[in-house]
């Protein structure tokens, strides 16, 4: 029904018409039908123009009639037309029930006077309404009927809209020819439903709407000037929310998908912020279209709440439609160039969720999405099934990418079991709609079973740290069998055809047993008495401390567990540090001591390291064979590291409470090789032999570089550049120019200036398999971690997560092809060399190394 003011205006105009120009309202024929009491648009316009000098133009008069028509106080006889200054028929609402042949009764004297008196204010009122009414009238016209003047009017209007303020004027001009008007009369009307296809983008001209999400209810309210419905169009994703009118009589501008894609898609706002309950929950940024032309996702996540990011991920990056299983990026080889061009949101999320969304939270949210049927009253089966499919696809990708940590965590392990059961039940309800997903779940179940089987076979063995502190068996089996086992792991890589998904499988295969096994080590007192402890790898410092104090009969108070380095340096351990034994420095040992007596701690004699070198052995080994075995060994150790261990390390040993022994061992390996080089040279007394050994190490570095074992290459060259070695002038003088040139070349490659530019350029050209210079990867991640906050104004800084994931992807890339080293042709002391490279004995005390060096070649006066 028309508003009071509009009804009043209509009454005044009709009364005056009946008095002054009664012939304008009469019965007329329209398409053969008798239409009672109609006026003609053009005549009504003319009459209103003549009624008062305040009405200045025909178009203004027509707009004033349109203001009446909009609220239904007058209407086109067949309801098809807005008001037009044309030969079209209109009727007053008051005459709706008029019958042909009956003339209306003329207004009384009193009514006449009343109408005359009210004329001026109602004209003013209609004139005020007219421009908007006119605009709406134009906006209702199909675009091909819009005249240049119409478009100009709309354009003027668009200039004032906040939702378009970021767009150029030429884009606004284009919009002016196609943008449409849409209005809805009743509060509670649903404009569109979550999960449906996006067809238009909307701007609110008048009124307000609620944004509702299944399982959450109303999360946001949008008002005049706000826009919505862009996400689905830009990302080709289903609607992320349902939009419901919050009041009667809401007006919108609407741009339909085809027009949107043509005009807007590439000139979108750079940043989109989604709010829930007044707080930002997701910030998206446009990806520049040239640089990422391969990706059809136009927005990338900058920050968000974990919950909302997951929601957005499920809705935009995982296909809920049938038959989409497996059609995901998982199956594409991830080459270095792809990393720059594909959408990595899912990959980033999987790699880093432990930082911002621990397993219990993630799995709880996944279940909530999976159980959409029980949480929302939406009976739309297609929507419900799509939610279920997405969760299953997510879980499949998650498990296949991350593996062991997912299986190993109690919350996620339990979740996988629950989900399996629910999927089994749902398959009965939804039948064929979930068939592909049931298959995916089956492969998840198989992976879980395989993992558990592996664990139980490996669980019996333990990981022993011999008195020297070095782990003798990495894979939980005795050293001799170790090689067999790892060899098997290598085969697994061979079979994988170099697919990226497989490398994580390999790493987790060798990784699994570790997670289950225990570690045996010693804790010493100041007087060098000790106890031997056996703990699971997950054990923290405080537990070790308590147990050691107990065994050694020490009082618990004021006791500290510390690492005592061979140099005598004392490093107290934080209480929550996980598995300190594997994190020790090369010849470091665990000591327990009273807080106040730390200064009195003296290293054990064995911490000094060997007093004699192994030159006699080394002379017998061919350098090529030595390099071969070093790289084989390093590759095994590198393959055993889970990418997550890098995160554990970067965020601190006490942050996640997770084991990172494999990374410990690999980083330790770097130091081991480095100090082995220094120690061996410093322990070789004869000058000629020393020079010979120096040449051997230079050759060894060359072979390692050739085998793309850049970790060992760096370790050797950094070892050679240690002052204890570089100061041995007499030794270096004995090098031929060929060797000197080689070494200079190496020095250039390890030059750290410009953030290791020469190395980065070198490694960028290599194809996997690569053993990267791992301390630099650690440094990059630490730099990212320390330079960027994890959370910004309560939202997770996802850019940081992306940067961390980039490094993790590099690691995955390096391992994405099997190590196909050529076996040395006539292996001589194969077993012996293999054992040798596993048990390098080193001096890691720089002061002692310098002293040895000085004794060999005293400083010339
Ligand atoms: P689209 O997914 O196309 O359809 C629903 C729209 O609701 C969505 O685009 C956003 O424009 C808008 N919206 C506003 N707030 C939110 C929110 N918190 N979550 C999701 N969508 C929102």
Automatic annotation (TrEMBL):
SUPFAM superfamilies for the chain: cAMP-binding domain-like (SSF51206), Ras GEF (SSF48366), Ubiquitin-like (SSF54236), Winged helix' DNA-binding domain (SSF46785)
Entry GO terms, CC: plasma membrane
PROSITE patterns to which the protein is assigned, alphabetical: CNMP_BINDING_3, DEP, RA, RASGEF_CAT, RASGEF_NTER
Keyword check for Kinase: no
Residues covered by the Cyclic nucleotide-binding domain: 163-264
Entry keywords, A to Z: Guanine-nucleotide releasing factor
GO molecular function: guanyl-nucleotide exchange factor activity
Ranges where the Ras-associating domain occurs: 517-597
Biological-process GO terms, alphabetical: Ras protein signal transduction
Domain (N-terminal Ras-GEF): residue spans on this chain: 297-449
Membrane-spanning segments: none
Protein's recorded name: Rap guanine nucleotide exchange factor 4
Taxonomic placement: Eukaryota, Metazoa, Ecdysozoa, Arthropoda, Crustacea
């Amino acid at each position: 029904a028309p508003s009071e003011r509009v009804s009043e205006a209509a009454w005044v105009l009709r009364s005056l018409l009946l008095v002054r120009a009664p012939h304008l309202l009469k019965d007329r024929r329209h398409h053969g039908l008798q239409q009672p009491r109609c006026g003609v648009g053009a005549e009504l316009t003319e009459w209103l123009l003549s009624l008062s000098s305040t009405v200045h133009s025909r178009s203004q008069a027509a707009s004033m009639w349109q203001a009446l028509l909009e609220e239904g106080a007058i209407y086109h006889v067949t309801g098809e037309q807005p008001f037009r200054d044309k030969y079209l028929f209109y009727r007053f609402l008051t005459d709706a029930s008029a019958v042909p042949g009956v003339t209306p009764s003329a207004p009384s004297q009193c009514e006449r006077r009343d109408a005359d008196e009210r004329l001026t204010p109602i004209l003013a009122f209609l004139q005020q309404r007219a421009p908007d009414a006119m605009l709406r009238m134009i906006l209702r016209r199909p675009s091909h009927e819009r005249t240049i003047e119409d478009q100009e009017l709309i354009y003027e209007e668009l200039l004032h809209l906040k939702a378009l303020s970021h767009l150029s004027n030429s884009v606004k001009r284009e919009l002016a020819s196609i943008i449409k008007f849409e209005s809805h009369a009743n509060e509670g009307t649903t404009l569109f439903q979550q999960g449906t296809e996006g067809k238009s983008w909307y701007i609110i001209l008048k009124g307000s709407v609620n944004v509702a999400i299944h399982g959450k209810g109303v999360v946001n309210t949008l008002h005049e000037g706000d826009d919505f419905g862009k996400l689905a169009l830009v990302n080709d994703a289903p609607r992320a929310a349902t939009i419901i009118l919050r009041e009667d009589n809401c007006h919108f501008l609407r741009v339909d998908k085809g027009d949107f894609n043509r005009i807007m898609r590439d000139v979108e706002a750079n940043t989109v912020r989604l709010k829930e309950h007044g707080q930002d929950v997701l910030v998206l940024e446009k990806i520049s279209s040239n640089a990422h032309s391969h990706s059809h996702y136009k927005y990338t996540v900058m920050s968000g709440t974990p919950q909302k990011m997951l929601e957005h991920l499920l809705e935009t990056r995982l296909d809920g439609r049938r038959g989409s299983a497996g059609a995901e990026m998982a199956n594409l080889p991830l080459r270095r160039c792809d990393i720059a061009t594909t959408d990595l949101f899912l990959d980033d999320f999987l790699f880093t969720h432990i930082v911002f969304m621990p397993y219990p939270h993630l799995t709880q949210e996944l279940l909530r999405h999976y159980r959409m049927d029980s949480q929302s009253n939406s009976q739309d089966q297609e929507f419900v099934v799509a939610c279920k499919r997405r969760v299953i696809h997510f879980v499949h990708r998650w498990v296949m990418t991350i593996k062991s940590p997912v299986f190993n965590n109690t919350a996620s392990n339990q979740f996988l079991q629950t989900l399996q059961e629910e999927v089994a039940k749902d398959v009965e309800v939804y039948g064929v709609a979930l068939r592909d997903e049931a298959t995916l779940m089956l492969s998840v179940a198989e992976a879980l079973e395989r993992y558990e089987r592996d664990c139980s076979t490996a669980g019996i063995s333990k990981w022993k740290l011999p008195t020297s502190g070095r782990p003798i068996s990495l894979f939980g089996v005795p050293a001799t069998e170790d090689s067999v086992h790892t060899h098997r792991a290598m085969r697994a890589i061979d079979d994988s055809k170099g697919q990226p998904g497989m490398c994580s499988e390999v790493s987790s295969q060798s990784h699994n047993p570790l997670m289950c096994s225990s570690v045996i080590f010693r804790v010493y007192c100041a007087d060098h008495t000790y106890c031997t402890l056996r703990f699971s790898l997950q054990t923290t410092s405080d537990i070790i401390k308590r147990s050691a104090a107990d065994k050694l009969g020490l009082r618990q108070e004021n006791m500290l567990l510390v690492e005592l380095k061979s140099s005598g340096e004392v490093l107290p351990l934080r209480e929550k540090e996980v598995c300190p034994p594997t994190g020790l420095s090369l010849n470091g040992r665990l000591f327990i001591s009273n807080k106040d007596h730390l200064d009195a701690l003296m290293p054990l004699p064995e911490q000094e390291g060997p007093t004699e070198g192994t030159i006699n052995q080394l002379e017998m080994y061919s350098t090529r064979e030595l390099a071969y075995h070093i790289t084989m060994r390093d590759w095994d150790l590198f393959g055993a590291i889970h990418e997550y261990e890098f995160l554990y390390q970067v965020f601190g040993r006490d942050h996640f409470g997770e084991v990172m022994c494999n990374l410990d061992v690999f980083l330790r390996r770097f130091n081991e090789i480095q100090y082995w080089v220094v120690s061996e040279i410093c322990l070789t007394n004869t000058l000629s032999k020393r020079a010979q050994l120096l040449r051997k190490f230079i050759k060894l570095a060359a072979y390692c570089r050739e085998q793309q074992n850049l970790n060992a290459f760096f370790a050797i060259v950094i070892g050679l550049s240690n002052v204890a070695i570089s100061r041995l002038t007499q030794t270096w003088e004995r090098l031929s120019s060929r060797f000197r040139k080689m070494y200079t070349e190496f020095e250039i490659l390890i030059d750290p200036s410009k953030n290791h530019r020469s190395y980065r350029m070198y490694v960028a050209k290599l194809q996997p398999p690569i053993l990267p210079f791992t301390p630099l990867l650690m440094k990059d991640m630490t730099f990212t971690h320390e330079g960027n906050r994890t959370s910004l104004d309560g939202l997770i800084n996802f850019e940081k997560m992306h940067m961390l994931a980039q490094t993790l992807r590099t690691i995955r890339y390096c391992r994405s092809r099997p190590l196909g080293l050529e076996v040395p042709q006539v292996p001589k002391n194969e077993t012996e060399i293999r054992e040798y490279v596993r048990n390098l004995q080193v001096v890691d005390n720089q002061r002692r190394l310098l002293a040895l060096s000085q004794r060999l070649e005293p400083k010339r006066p």
